[in-house]
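Here is this case:
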Amino acid sequence: MSHIVFLLVPGLHLLDLAGPAQVFSTAADFGHSYQLSYVAEQPTVPTTQGLPLTARLDPPDLGPGDLIVVPGWRSRTLAASPPVGAACLQLLRDHHAQGGTVAGVCAGAELLGRAGLLDGRRCTTHHDVQDELAHRYPKASVVRDVLYTTDDRVVTSAGVASGIDLALHLIATRHGPGAAARVARDMVVYARRNGGEPQTSAMLRARSHFDDTVHRVQDLLDTRFDQPMPLRALAAAEGVSERTLTRLFTRATGGLTPLRYQQALRLERAEYLIGHGTTVDAAARAVGFEDPRMLRRLRARGVR
């Protein structure tokens, strides 16, 4: 069971909280073992939208596989953000130091900055306060005009709805792109938003187009990336020729063929598995490569 702890600050935006919470809750509905908790310094937390929230005062025991998310709040400046006690900041520091992941949605990056977790790392926030974030934390590398960034288990996203993109990316890296695609479809969220080059998810990076035929083919590949998916089968599923599908796909995705897109999905998932202790040979088999040498070649070439 992985804990997803939302650290609630007075005046938070409901969608900053509800978007990621819905993603992980839906993932749990599909069999991924997540338990969501809501923690604050007071039992009742006011929100910007006027709906008070109930929270627990003590966080659950957390391990390296768990996640703390800080939803953003309304504030004209980051400097005028609500005060947060030392215990909350220490919770963020300790969890990260023990191998856990921390995330900030929108202004939530400010709390990560106060905890010292942005120093030397890439981060982002809402476009209205990007310059201020860079000024307040000069040791951080603020990336502008992207949906989210990840750097050494510190994850940040831009404003409001981008928290959904952030959560889908975490689902994709933990459980594979098929799981993220299934969650997105259930939420009636089309994974088509592009956060710019620093965004690392192959599934989302190649979705910033408007070709429905290609999106449907990508849905198939996202769900079955670890299975053989010959071009003829993909083309037949859409009722087009192989040549037409290749032309449409490469034009929509900026040069990727269906095979290269599938390889990027496999490589991304394999890198996650390897980073968590799986051998290269085992990772290759898990993502669908019959010969581990193919995975080694793709890693050496840096295919994305």
Notes: The chain has two domains: 2-174, 209-304. The CA atoms of residues 208 and 254 lie 10 Å apart. The first strand starts at residue 2 and ends at 7.
